[in-house]
Amino acid sequence: MRLAQLRDHERELYYFQLRIGFAGAAVLVAFALLFARFFYLQVVQHGAYVSKAEDNRISVVPVAPNRGLILDRNGVVLARNYSAYTLEVFPAKVRNLERTVAEVAQLIEVQPKDRSRLRKLLAETRNAESLPIRTRLSDEEVARFAANRYRFPGVDIKARLFRQYPLGESASHVLGHIGRISTRDREKLEELGVEANYRGTDFIGKAGIEASYQHELHGMAGVEQVEIDAGGRGLRTLARTPAQPGNNITLTLDIRLQQLVERLFGERRGALVALEPRSGAVLAFVSRPGFDPNLFVDGIDPANWEALNNSPDRPLNNRAIAGLYPPGSTFKPYMALAALELGKRTPRSVIHDPGYFVFGERRFRDSKPGGHGTVDLYKSIVVSSDTFYYQLANDLGINAIAGFMQHFGFGARTGIDLEGEATGVLPSPEWKMARFRRPEQQKWYAGETISIGIGQGYNAYTPAQMALAVATLANLGAMYRPHLVSHIDDQRSGARRAIEPVLVRQLPLRTENLEFVRRAMAGVNREGTGARVFAGAQYTSAGKTGTAQVIGLKQNEKYDERRVSERLRDHSLFIAFAPVENPRIALAVLVENGGFGARTAAPIARAVLDYYLLGRLPAALDKPPSSEEPENEEGD
Amino acid sequence: MELTRVSLRGIAARLGDGVDGTLLTLALLLAALGLLTLFSASYDQPGRVTGQLANLAVALGAMWVAARIPPQALLRFAPPVYVFGVLLLLGVALFGDVVNGARRWLHIGVTRFQPSEMMKLALPLMLAWYFHRNEAGLRTRDFAVGVLLLALPVVLIARQPDLGTAVLVAAAGFYVIFFAGVGWKLLVGLGVLGLIGLAPLWGLLHDYQRKRILTLLDPTQDPLGAGYHIIQSTIAVGSGGITGKGWLHGTQTHLEFIPERHTDFIFAVFSEEFGLLGNCLLLVLYALLIGRGLMIAANAASFFSRLLAGSIALMFFTYVFVNMGMVSGILPVVGVPLPFVSYGGTALATLFVGLGILMSIHRHRKLVQT
Known about the structure:
Chain A is of the alpha+beta class. Helices cover 36% and strands 20% of the residues of chain A. In chain A, strand 14 and strand 15 form a beta hairpin. In chain A, helix 13 packs antiparallel against helix 21 (511-527), helix 14 (377-384) crosses helix 21 and helix 15 (386-396) crosses helix 19 (446-452). Chain B contains 14 helices and three strands. Chain B is mainly α. Chain B has helices at residues 8-16, 21-41, 47-67, 71-95, 115-133, 140-158, 163-179, 184-204, 207-217, 227-240, 251-254, 266-298, 303-327, 345-363, and strands at 97-99, 102-108, 111-113. Chain B has one domain (20-363).
């Protein structure tokens, strides 16, 4: 019994030890399996995992280039950059954005406008980007956040360059502004195949020179290889290819002249474009009211945006190239030239002006009751006879007028180096056919031609077109494309690229006809509607006043300025060039609701010419504009 | 019972008495490697190393005590310890603290305690006791009871949920049943039963646990979520190469790409810095430790101590295999530390108590020598 038990015991022990052996073998097999796995990972796949670890460790960070400066022709800085700290968040790395911002706000002031900007940016950007919670942190705020940084994964302080426009509103429509790159901008950059160069860049030119010369101003992005931790924070830079700054752009503008004009406009709305006739260089480019482009730099807040966008003065509208106005009587010199060129009038042709022109049933009134009496071509310009041009328009016919005027660039984009230029309307039967739908509207009526002759009716041009036309006239028919940029300084090579004048066309006009019109325009400033404003000028000048109707008058209604609300008053226009024999400057001024051309537009033109030709500033700049009635008011 | 005389030399001898030099040396070598790795992994929290040293001191004390408890005493205490443990597990299920979405901790006075941890030893004790009692003729019925004794705490732990500990406890229990001599047919039957049991278990699993298992099949499915652990740890292991990046030079570690790098994923740190050679060293050390444990089991005096020693030896194996398997991406991520290496006092104490029990069994092998 005991022996049997013992034998049992031994058998049992034998089986147990067998199982121990089996377990030991199983352990070795399992460890061999682990070894095989390690061998696979650490020897076979080693290279692949090394590069994965490197990818983990090294992040290629694009370095945004410094944007180029914008300067005026004398080197005055109009747009520059300054460095400031921003507090930014990677929305993808934050679990609850609202809460994170709320916690950040306990450390650093976050205003409602900052929050609404963040919300707006969040809605606009789909991909994971760093978005600003606060911009322009003070040193103290930077220190305070840095001490608490560990509490906010996904939130970090960045040193960013911000655009600054030191002169504020001045030349705002020339400079335009930058803004955050939108999804549409991104798509456009992709179409151009330059999106790689914009990695790391948050801002892009949205309007003005900032937009039209975006690719010059931008520069070349650099690359930094940064060692990062799992939280995406940069620890140290391993290698870098520096960014190349954007090119500096020097404008043809004289900012002092520009600011002179802006002050002369004061609160009034309107535009002025002054050109150098022999090159097309823009000397002054004003659209009033302007806006402060600095508001756009780090994302305009909704309140300011509302104010700018909904103002009845439409400050964001670039009137100089996008505002369309009838030229009024400033159209007459071109009409006179057309008459001479097409042989419909000679300098000796004379009409009798009774103060109206009858066409069919309708009577077209002259702005001077009773008319100007006997009027020849010269006098028609100097005193601005409407009756003369009613008749002339009727004699020429709409096709001849349209065919001639297009040579001066009316109704076509000038090609100025800004975006958003309007075409305008050079009226013609073809234009009307295309413009309207209903057959009875599509037909051109001969009666519609009459008011075209005095720059009314369907005529609608931009101040830039009017300036280009008068510059072409001053330059004896040689039309140069207007341009705002004088030269570009390449930051990489140090080379300076001048923007060469581009001759658009040379009009085949007879010199004696051009001389005649120029003489008549000189007469305007010497003895005509502009004489009072240009009294005592120490240079010769040529000009033409214009008054553009805002509301149509009924057949026998008399326009009474006092009875018309301010915004329905006539626009005041003036075109000019000087000196007459050798024009160095040509300009067009438009003052919205400024009344007669001689009253508000012409004094601005006089001040520009005085400054440009004599270097003289008007004495009474700060005084309100003169309210006394000009002598030749009736003869606009 | 020779050592009854008291002398100065005797005190020193008695202190070391019952402590198995081989096991202790192997465990301390592993712990030293662990401290080295921990130092590298906790460059930003230097307190971890001293903390682990303190844990080690406590664990050594526990081992020393355990080594002095004779197997007969363990046999006597097995049922009450098991019952107590199961009651505690029920207590956790009812009153436990919730940490990270799992109910694992029980407040005892000022400190918190994980009852599931003690089950790692209590279950093999209980099963060994049960089979020892019925040593004369183990029948299928006895193994069925054993399975029930195993299933009760395992289900409770899995429900907490703590899949890692449940796996360890279940494995420890299974080893006892295996060594008790369950027939191979029955073993296959148990395996099939276990697989069938997995199906309802899948339903018991939490979403994150299911996700971990699914992610194992394709970690790239969720690279920033559940797959992140596996992707980053395999990158660490793979980029370590044959010789490793060198101590303190693991980029995955020092740039914080490895999650849980002090505890469950410390092997990724080790593997990145010491490479395949380091891994082989670890495997050899563990193999020797387990081998020593199995040898002790083979030579143990009673059925009870044989079963217990075999189970404890293989428990070390389970730890190592599951941990290294999950870090190198062949097993799902469950919370199993690398024995003697990972940071953490409770697990270390359990392991050293296990060692102590092995030592005690070894010391008492001759008493009932046949």
